[in-house]
Design goal:
Length: 131
């Protein structure tokens, strides 16, 4: 019994070592020390020393790489047009079904087909699951 437990622990340890071989390293978070923190008060004072201009000109905390820097905020004209429409509300399937399909714009028609297909697949899967 004890021998089986030792073998299972050994296999778990070997598996964890194999997984941890290729770890990705990230940049240390702003205001945090690499070795032991000196306390929350020192972190708060470092965070408050960032000037307003730096906060408005860069995306603070967006750096994920060790040797990288926080990206600069560009003017709106530098970003692609589709970016500003990502958060627009899109109609639900019930709203699109109430409209006349022949008069729908192309984007709404694509959305209708996608949502209708998804609803049909879910219905077919639930019928199959009941059988």
């Amino acid at each position: 019994m004890a021998l089986n437990q030792i073998r299972s622990l050994r296999s778990i340890i070997i598996a964890k070592e194999a997984v941890s071989v290729g770890q990705r390293s990230f940049a240390a978070a702003a205001g945090k020390a690499k070795k032991g923190s000196k306390g929350a008060a020192s972190d708060a004072s470092k965070a408050s020393t960032l000037s307003k201009e730096v906060k408005l000109a860069t995306v603070v905390g967006a750096n994920r790489l060790k040797d990288g820097a926080d990206p600069k905020i560009m003017p709106d004209s530098e970003y692609p047009g589709w970016l500003w429409h990502l958060l627009d509300k899109r109609p639900a399937l019930s709203e699109v079904r109430r409209k006349n399909i022949e008069t729908l714009p192309y984007e709404d028609l694509k959305r209708f087909v996608k949502l209708d297909d998804r609803a049909r697949i879910k219905e077919n899967n639930s019928v199959k699951a009941k059988n």
